[in-house]
């Protein structure tokens, strides 16, 4: 079982105290949580893009072939892991301003637990549509922000009055890291790996035989 997973979702105040205590004993305790849970959005993306498919226009369904779907899933997994370690570096760098003294591993672990809602939101990739994506991302963002505000005073041992500014800085840097990782990832996948799409257009049943005849040469 992934450590602290259910406690983070039900009792985050209690979870952060336990996480801090565990990280002081073993600063790499977050590894199981991060590497296992990051598989969830990657696997769901493979299933959604290869088996479920998506639609951009009416009566058309698009899928990725196995190779392209695996490549996309692998890139997403690598981006999550890399982004977490990069954010850990920036979080530790910012901690000096707020008189916190966490180790690098503790900062990476803190970010790994903060992004838990976003990794759970990866379940939305099973049915890749615009509104499903927007809904799960917004919900994940709200709960991740809540975890951030609850966790900073407990995990970082800072004054509650510094929480808002520290959280705002963390969010700002997080968005910059996300953009600077996701854009190159997409460009690499589209331009270098050359994904293969499979399309299936459903014939409009309301298209009458008379209309077909008129479009044939000579009306025949």
Automatic annotation (TrEMBL):
The entry's keywords: Membrane, Transmembrane, Transmembrane helix
Top-rank lineage group of the source organism: Bacteria
Domain Yip1 positions: 7-179
Cellular location(s): Membrane
GO CC annotation: membrane
TM helices/strands, residue ranges: 30-49, 69-91, 103-125, 131-152, 164-192
InterPro entries linked to this entry: Yip1_dom
Keyword Membrane: yes
Membrane-protein topology: Multi-pass membrane protein
Coiled coil start-end: none
Primary subcellular site in the record, as a coarse category: membrane
Keyword ATP-binding assigned: no
Stated name of the protein: YIP1 family protein
Origin species: Stutzerimonas zhaodongensis
